[in-house]
Amino acid sequence: MATALCPGSFDPVTNGHLDIIERTARHFDDVLVAVIRNPQKSAPLFTLAEREEMLREVLAHVPNVRIDHFKGLLVDYAREHGAESIVKGLRAISDFDYELQMGQMNHQLSGIDTFFITTNPAYSFLSSSLVRDVARFGGDVSSMVPPSVAKRLDERFGADN
Ligand code: PNS
């Protein structure tokens, strides 16, 4: 059985993530979506449990997707869970430099290959951090995240606006 690993912070999951995971699930028997416990970038807006819960809600319709979390090196987690491939979305050239470097490092460490799926152009401008920013200041993110995620953002920031 071919298992693909889709890692990320998912703070929160966006329509762009959803598209990549759904497309990955068409090419692999089993897709393991792994949420990093402590994103390096900054303190997350949503707890690990909330980020996992949102992913479970929005991916409930895809039977070969599982949601989990990890800490430490991604390749250690991949090896422990029998994932032979890492799959990431590529939005733009700006993603490429960093993703190439990470893919090469992960391969050097473990022999695990990284595959890239081109982001749907409709979502190429989307990132969790921009969605958080827009939602924080009362902007409409309903076309950028699934309805259940929009609701949580509204609950989180609603009182501030
Ligand atoms: O959604 P993000 O924040 O872009 O995801 C980044 C993530 C979690 C995929 C990346 O930071 C990661 O793999 N971190 C785990 C630590 C690790 O293995 N570092 C070495 C990678 S070369």
Quickly give the CATH architecture.
3-Layer(aba) Sandwich
Count of discrete domains? 1
Average pLDDT taken over every residue: 95
CATH superfamily: HUPs
Assign the structural class, choosing from mainly alpha, mainly beta, alpha/beta, alpha+beta, or little secondary structure. alpha/beta
- What would the principal axes of the Cα set say about the shape? globular
Radius of gyration: 15 Å
Whole-Å distance between the termini?
A: 48 Å
CATH topology: Rossmann fold
Number of helices: 6
Biggest sheet features: 5 strands, parallel
Give the uncertain stretches in residue-range form.
none
Q: What percentage of residues falls in helices of 4 or more residues?
A: 40-55%
Write the layout of secondary structure elements.
Layout: E1 3-8, H1 15-27, E2 30-36, H2 48-58, E3 65-70, H3 74-80, E4 85-90, H4 93-110, E5 113-118, H5 128-136, H6 147-157
Parallel strand pairs: 1-2, 1-4, 2-3, 4-5
In short:
The chain has 161 residues and is α/β, with parallel strands linked by helices.
Commentary on this structure:
The protein is an alpha/beta fold. The chain has a single domain, classed as HUPs (Rossmann fold, 3-Layer(aba) Sandwich). It is built from six helices and five strands; from the N terminus they run βαβαβαβαβαα. The chain has helices spanning 15-27, 48-58, 74-80, 93-110, 128-136, 147-157, and strands at 3-8, 30-36, 65-70, 85-90, 113-118. Strands 3-2-1-4-5 form a five-stranded parallel sheet, with helices on both faces. The chain is globular, with a radius of gyration of 15 Å. 4'-phosphopantetheine binds at residues 7-9, 36, 39-40, 73-74, 102, 105-106.
